[in-house]
């Protein structure tokens, strides 16, 4: 069972060994130049170097970099790359700040790295950097300590810290501790004891008197006999010890010494590395239950980035990882010292540092494509019927996407917390439930706590498979030691039946009190080990393997507990890190904005929060809406709470509208987000990026913590404070150099500058860099599995050239690792005002063979014309919004195996007042010969954009061309149609109808091409009975739909997204009011259709903008009384209550021919 659990395929299994030719060996020191900015530095006193893959480092097979090496006259080994010069004093022993330096070319700084794993004699070695056993973890919640923290958690037998200490000679040495001892967990303040163990043998006992408070530190010492060289020293709580002290550091000094050494370094050290104290970002295991104590920037555990421009990743104590991902110990070196580390020397090029880290420790996990959509869970005892009859129908009814359904702990019975059986009270037929989720295109994740109760029916089998499971003090809760292969196999076997039924993923809720399992091997933290195992197991099932859990430590001890001997590096490639049970406060929201970016700087791209917070019932409307906005621009958008309200319809009104809008936007953004996730996987550049990654030379970038870059082209600044009295929120935003255009309003800002951006609940500050391209889905989908993205909208901010390589694959499985994916280059040439879609390369099963594009160019003036592949398109294919300075162009479906170009040509003040009228066979309405004379025949002719084809349909119901009016010579069938001077005669009145016809009211007949003749210029147009042939369908240039009160039918906020509200608004001629009728009874704007929501038929059903689908909900009939009739519902378009006010959202209602239902197609 254990072997099956750890089986994995993919790049992480590649050997980390480097060819010998790439190594420079100098005595007991060996250096491997991996990149110009990354050097492995290994010291083995016995000459036994390690080339095997470690749990952290899964790749050392880099392209060979250029470097030189030599020995200087003063006895130093020098290695020079284009970025670094390393100097090591030959034959001087293990690496220390005294014998090793690295000069960084770009900054001129000289680094003197140290190995926190190496504890030399007469040195204060920080206890928080030691290997830990039992319940000991790093702590940070007291003052007066040295280093970054202290060791805490001496509460039970077996707890301890361990260091390998190097001494020059054998003999008696003084082992001293710096400790604090105050009122302990037993409410006593007494002398405490711990025991020293040396090289596996029990040594003397420490007597540690009280220090008065936990912020006051003292020293205690014992004498120990040590061998020359390396000695393994453990300070442990044995059975006879009382423990309950905190250790700051330990030091081995000569036996006669009475002094305690000063701190060894001013670097910021952890058990996994060291670097300058000016760290950038960092990570934390979780943010559980921290209402008023959210960790500050300095409290975050460091990643590799800091303003000093270098870092030493200490991999010395990390376990080895075999090709099939079993864990084993490193070879021993006896009494000889050993060090293994990686020097990152990047200067201000932080992106290069993350690229090196990504290549070294494995690509950031590329989650299934659906994971970048929308997740929902709630700590609530939902039943199958609740999911099927209430919850999911509400998502669908409200056009709110959902990709992942996460089921919290109540699914288990008889033990809801530690159980491994279905609660059939809630799920009477589990298989039917999981079959239903699959039919609904939902992925599922189920909550588990990693232990098992003795009363669970599956306990006997698990206990037998494990060879006996340890039990907690309650006598019935059993836990697993994941370092034991039998335990790991038994633990995995508990999952298998549910996976066979259809469970996709497991939410490992390994929090304080949520599961007592351990990893007894101190060289791998429990989180890292089990998260690797979960990811491997799913990969072995043919899925995109990932763990969904907390990261980098253990549930035992403090909330931020971490085994610093390892660090977070393996979590990058394995885990979707969720930040735990947060409180629902504005401060938490503001902190999460900074925290995701901070973890990104540590190389952790996949981070997710409980949106809205876990601890909070019903939130203030503005807090809820702002949290959901924030989630739309996070690596993973996931709603969760403890019995709280996190669904949009829990907040009727503006908050609901805002939440649904941003959830739809989130789903639409998946092509952009997924491409960014692939970029993180390949280059290490995370999805969310702190500003200094892109702008290291701008000092303001380091303090702009309330904003971040989302992918390459979006700057996001979530609003994290309550709205003002006018319903607006605001946030200060540092605008980087260049021009940046607001994604929602089109307002352009020029940086560098700091501005205050204000937005109602319907918007948030999101800026697109000049030249930035943002591809999104055009069509609405309930989930990503509904369909591949065959229609794309690309938003471009004009002002600079730009490019973007759109990535796609099957979205699940691991075929992408062997090339089953596509890449489509997108580019914008600013000078030419030209957008190009390059030919798609690659392929995967189900990849689209054609795509239709909607191009939205912001920060732009109106063009005079638009060309697609060099051919001018009709005015129905594009529109301009002067308020947002945005051009919108829609294309036909275009083959992906060829390049295509959209070009904006010329300049105009606004949308054109005239344009081509397309008729039968794609021919254009035309004045014969282009002669502007009364009586000149009107015909259809090859479209040529001449003046004879520039037709207008102004508000007086005339159709005008060449300064004349379309004129019917009579009222009978076959009455000739010509142009004539405009007189207002009845023969010059034409009503545009939803079916595409032009009705002459005086005759009751329609403009007609005789016999639908498709020969250019062959026949003169005529009047004829309206019979709906293609010879009576005319696609006029877009125009307004004038409604009650002289207001125009308008898309709210000019939002082209599906499910956007349709309203009345002041007529302004913008793109949100330019409607067309292509002849299929639909009425269109932004390339989408006027739609009755949910195909409803009841009075009061709202209408909306939605993807055109040919359904009855999108069929409209223009009636003689001026109403727009929807036959499917039997009702008419209506202004509720005939309010005739801007902002009235339109509906359908019983047809009554009243003024509330009069809508004229212009």
Automatic annotation (TrEMBL):
GO biological process, any: carbohydrate metabolic process
Domain of life assignment: Bacteria
Keyword Nucleotide-binding among record annotations: no
Gene Ontology terms for molecular function: carbohydrate binding; hydrolase activity, hydrolyzing O-glycosyl compounds
PROSITE patterns membership: CBM6 (PS51175), RICIN_B_LECTIN (PS50231)
Signal peptide coordinates: 1-16
InterPro entries xref list: CBM6, DUF5110, Galactose-bd-like_sf, GH, Glyco_hydro_31_C, Glyco_hydro_31_TIM, Glyco_hydro_b, Glycosyl_Hydrolase_31
Signal as UniProt keyword: yes
Span of domain CBM6: 123-253
Keywords assigned: Hydrolase, Signal
Pfam families recorded: CBM_35, DUF5110, Glyco_hydro_31_2nd, Glyco_hydro_31_3rd, Ricin_B_lectin
Membrane-crossing residue ranges in chain numbering: none
Family: Belongs to the glycosyl hydrolase 31 family.
Protein's name according to its UniProt entry: Glycoside hydrolase
């Amino acid at each position: 069972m254990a072997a099956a659990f750890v089986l994995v395929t993919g790049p992480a299994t590649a050997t980390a060994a480097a060819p010998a030719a790439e190594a420079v060996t100098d005595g007991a020191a060996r250096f491997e130049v991996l990149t110009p900015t990354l050097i492995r530095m290994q010291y083995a006193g016995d000459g036994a170097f390690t080339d095997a893959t470690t749990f952290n480092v899964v790749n050392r097979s880099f392209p060979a970099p250029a470097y030189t090496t030599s020995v200087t006259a003063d006895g130093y080994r020098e290695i020079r790359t284009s970025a670094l010069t390393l100097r090591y004093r030959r034959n001087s022993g293990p690496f220390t700040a005294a014998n090793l330096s690295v000069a960084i070319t770009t900054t001129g700084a000289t680094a003197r790295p140290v190995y926190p794993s190496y504890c030399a004699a007469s040195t204060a070695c920080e206890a928080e950097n030691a290997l830990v056993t039992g319940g000991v973890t790093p702590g940070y919640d007291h003052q007066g300590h040295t280093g970054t923290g202290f060791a805490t958690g001496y509460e039970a037998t077996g707890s301890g810290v361990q260091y390998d200490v190097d001494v020059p000679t054998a003999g008696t040495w003084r082992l001293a501790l710096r400790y604090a001892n105050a009122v302990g967990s037993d409410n006593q303040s007494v002398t405490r004891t711990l025991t020293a163990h040396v090289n596996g043998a029990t040594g003397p006992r420490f007597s540690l008197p009280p220090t008065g408070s936990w912020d006051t530190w003292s020293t205690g010492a014992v004498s120990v006999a040590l061998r020359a060289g390396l000695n393994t020293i453990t300070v442990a709580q044995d059975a006879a010890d009382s423990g309950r002290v905190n250790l700051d550091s330990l030091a081995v000094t000569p036996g006669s010494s009475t002094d305690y050494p000063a701190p060894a370094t001013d670097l910021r050290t952890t058990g996994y590395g060291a670097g300058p104290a000016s760290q950038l970002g960092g990570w934390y295991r979780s943010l559980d239950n921290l209402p008023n104590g959210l960790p500050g920037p300095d409290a975050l555990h460091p990643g590799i980035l800091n303003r000093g421009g270098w870092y030493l990743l200490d991999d010395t104590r990390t376990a080895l990882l075999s090709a099939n991902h079993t864990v084993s110990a490193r070879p021993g070196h006896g009494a000889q010292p050993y060090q293994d580390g990686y020097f990152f020397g990047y200067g201000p090029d932080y992106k290069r540092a993350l690229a090196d880290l990504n290549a070294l420790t494995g690509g950031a996990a590329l989650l299934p494509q659906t994971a970048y959509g929308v997740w929902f869970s709630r700590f609530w005892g939902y039943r199958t019927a609740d999911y099927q009859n209430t919850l999911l129908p509400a998502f669908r009814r409200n056009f709110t996407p959902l990709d992942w359904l996460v089921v919290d702990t109540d699914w288990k019975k008889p033990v809801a917390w530690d159980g491994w059986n279905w609660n059939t009270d809630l799920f009477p037929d589990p298989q039917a439930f999981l079959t239903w989720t699959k039919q609904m295109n939902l992925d599922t994740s189920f909550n588990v706590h990693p232990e098992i109760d003795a009363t669970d029916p599956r306990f006997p089998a698990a206990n037998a498979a494990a060879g006996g499971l340890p039990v907690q003090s309650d006598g019935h809760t059993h836990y697993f030691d994941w370092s034991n292969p039998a335990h790991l196999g038994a633990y995995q076997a508990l999952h298998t039946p549910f996976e066979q039924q259809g469970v996709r993923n497991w939410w490992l809720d390994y929090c304080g009190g949520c599961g007592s399992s351990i990893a007894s091997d101190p060289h791998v933290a429990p989180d890292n080990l089990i998260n690797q195992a979960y990811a491997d197991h799913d990969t072995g099932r043919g899925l995109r393997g990932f763990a969904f859990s907390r990261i980098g430590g253990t549930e035992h001890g403090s909330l931020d507990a971490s085994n610093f001997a390892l660090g977070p590096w393996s979590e990058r490639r394995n885990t979707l890190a969720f930040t735990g049970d947060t409180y629902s406060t504005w401060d938490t929201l503001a902190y999460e904005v900074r925290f995701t970016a901070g973890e990104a700087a540590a190389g952790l791209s996949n981070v997710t929060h409980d949106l809205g917070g876990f601890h909070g019932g019903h939130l203030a409307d503005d807090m809820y809406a702002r949290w959901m906005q924030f989630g739309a621009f996070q690596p993973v958008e996931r709603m969760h709470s403890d019995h709280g309200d996190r669904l949009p319809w829990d907040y009727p009104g503006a908050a609901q509208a805002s939440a649904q809008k941003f959830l739809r936007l989130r789903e639409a953004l998946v092509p952009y987000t997924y491409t960014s996730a692939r970029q993180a996987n390949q280059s290490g550049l995370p999805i969310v990026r702190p500003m200094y990654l892109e702008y290291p030379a701008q000092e303001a970038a380091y303090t702009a913590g309330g904003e971040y870059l989302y992918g390459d082209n979006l700057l996001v600044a979530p609003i994290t404070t309550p709205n003002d009295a006018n319903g607006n929120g605001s946030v200060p935003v540092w605008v980087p150099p260049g021009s940046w255009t607001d994604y929602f309003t089109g307002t352009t800002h020029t940086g560098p500058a700091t501005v205050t951006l204000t937005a109602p609940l319907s918007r948030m500050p999101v800026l697109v860099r000049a030249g930035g391209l943002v591809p999104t889905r055009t069509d609405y989908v309930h989930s990503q599995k509904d369909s591949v993205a065959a229609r794309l909208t690309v938003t471009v901010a004009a002002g600079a050239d730009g490019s973007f390589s759109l990535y796609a694959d099957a979205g699940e499985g691991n075929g992408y690792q062997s090339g089953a994916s596509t890449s489509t280059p997108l580019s914008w040439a600013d000078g030419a005002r030209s957008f190009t879609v390059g030919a798609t390369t690659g392929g995967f099963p189900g990849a689209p063979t054609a795509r239709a594009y909607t191009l939205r160019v912001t920060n732009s003036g109106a063009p005079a014309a638009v060309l697609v592949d060099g051919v001018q398109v009709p005015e129905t294919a594009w529109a301009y919004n002067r308020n947002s300075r945005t051009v919108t162009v829609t294309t036909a479906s275009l083959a992906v195996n060829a390049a295509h170009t959209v070009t904006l040509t010329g300049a105009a003040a606004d949308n054109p007042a005239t344009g081509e009228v397309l008729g039968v066979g794609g021919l254009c309405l035309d004045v014969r010969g282009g002669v502007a004379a009364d009586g000149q025949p009107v015909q259809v002719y090859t479209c040529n954009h001449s003046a004879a084809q520039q037709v207008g349909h102004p508000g007086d119901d005339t159709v005008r061309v060449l300064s004349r009016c379309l004129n019917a010579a009579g009222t009978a069938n076959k009455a000739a149609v010509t142009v004539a001077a405009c007189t207002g005669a009845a023969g010059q009145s034409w009503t545009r109808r939803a079916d595409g016809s032009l009705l002459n009211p005086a005759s009751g007949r329609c403009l007609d091409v005789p016999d639908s003749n498709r020969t250019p210029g062959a026949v003169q147009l005529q009047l004829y009975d309206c019979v709906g042939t293609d010879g009576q369908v005319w696609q006029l240039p877009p125009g307004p739909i004038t409604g009650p009160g002289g207001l125009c039918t308008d898309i709210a906020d000019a939002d082209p997204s599906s499910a956007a509200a349709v309203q009345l608004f002041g007529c302004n001629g913008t793109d949100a009011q330019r409607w067309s009728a292509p002849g299929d009874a639909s009425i269109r704007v932004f390339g989408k259709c006027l739609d009755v929501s949910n195909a409803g038929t009841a009075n009061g059903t709202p209408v909306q903008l939605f993807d055109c689908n040919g359904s009855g909900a999108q069929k409209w009939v223009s009636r003689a009384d001026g109403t727009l009739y929807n036959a499917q519902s039997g009702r008419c378009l209506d202004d509720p209550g005939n309010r005739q006010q801007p902002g009235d959202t339109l509906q359908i209602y019983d047809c009554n021919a009243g003024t509330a239902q009069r809508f004229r197609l212009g």
